[in-house]
Amino acid sequence: MCLPRISTKRFKQINAYTKKQKICTYVFYTAQRHADYVRDRNLKCMHSVEEMEQLLNLTYEVHTILDSLHIDHWLMYGSVFGAIRAQGPLAWDYDVDIGIRGIQFLKLKKTDIFGAFITAGLRVTDHVARNGLIGVSRPGWNLGVDVFTFYDYDGIMKRPGWASWLLFVNYELHHTFPSRLVKSPLPVTKFGFFNISVPREGNEILKYLYRFDWWKVVKPLSC
Predict the structure, then answer these.
(1) Are residues 69 and 94 in the same domain?
(2) Are 51 and 93 in contact (CB under 8 A)?
(3) CA–CA separation, 137 vs 144, rounded Å?
(4) Rounded to whole angstroms, how far apart are CA atoms 103 and 174?
(5) Is 208 a residue whose pLDDT tops 90?
(6) Could you tell me which residue ranges the LicD/FKTN/FKRP nucleotidyltransferase domain spans (predicted)?
(7) What is the distance between the alpha carbons of residues 205 and 211, in angstroms, rounded to a whole number?
(8) 175, 158 in Cβ contact below 8 A?
(9) 52 vs 58: CA distance, rounded Å
(10) Residue 42: what pLDDT?
(11) Which residue has the higher pLDDT, 149 or 173?
(12) How many CB atoms lie within 10 A of CB 179?
């Protein structure tokens, strides 16, 4: 197949533009703050009572299944804000975030773990290879639960997957924290109608996950 010839000057221009686009994309993902996740124009200011009940019920199901599998787990990311401020999901939360201990996840067959959720009538989305994420939802419900695997690397908890290497600065800034914060046994807190584990030292973990605005109350633009 014959390809059109491109001058050296034009090739350099295209190459420079491509590099610029890659850098812009990389900087965008690296600079993410809590506000960038929440202040999406499409996010609701408040979900219906039915939707929030569904989200809590789903979270409880995931919690009990992880308990039955003897996998340590705790609230993560924005759900820590919810536990501190509302003893449950915040009114605009579209999911609940849960962290799990990766070493315990590895000791079990993935088919057994996913099978436990599927047997309960839940839908599982496997993104473990990408960024350690397992999405759990119930067909017909709008909100879901995200389960994130974390591994202890010399005292620092990190997520696995190719995305954590590709966007390593972003993951170092927003998805790592000292392992002491999730050392067993973990404290528990009320979350809706049940109790679930949370990281140690109160809101300390938020200072690592949302370094630039962890102290702020950030609401969706629709509020």
Answers:
(1) yes
(2) no
(3) 5
(4) 21
(5) yes
(6) 71-110
(7) 10
(8) yes
(9) 10
(10) 76
(11) 149
(12) 17
Amino acid occupying residue 44:
K
Statement to judge: residues 55 and 106 lie in one domain: yes
Q: Alpha-carbon Rg of the chain, whole angstroms?
A: 20
DSSP line for 104-130 = HHHHS-HHHHHHHHHHTT-EEEEEHHH
Average pLDDT over residues 126-147: 97
Determine the Cα–Cα distance for residues 60 and 33; give it in Å rounded to an integer: 28
| 201: three-class secondary structure by DSSP | coil
110 and 165 in a common domain: yes
Q: Would you say residue 16 lies in a domain?
A: yes
217: in domain: no
| 163-204 pLDDT tens trace | 888 888 888 888 999 999 999 999 999 999 999 999 999 999
Two tokens at 146? 């995200």
Could you tell me if 123 and 140 are in contact, meaning their C-beta atoms sit under 8 angstroms apart? Answer: no
Dmax (CA) for the chain in angstroms is 67
Number of domains in the chain: 2
93/34 same-domain check = no
At residue 167, the pLDDT reads 85
Q: Is the pLDDT of residue 139 over 70?
A: yes
Count the helices and strands in the chain (H runs, E runs): 10, 9
- Rounded to an integer, what distance in angstroms lies between the CA atom of residue 169 and that of residue 175? 10
Q: What are phi and psi of 114, to 5 degrees?
A: -65, -35
Shared-domain flag, residues 79 and 126 = yes
Q: Using one digit for the tens of pLDDT, what is the confidence trace for 75-122?
A: 999 999 999 999 999 999 999 999 999 999 999 999 999 999 999 999
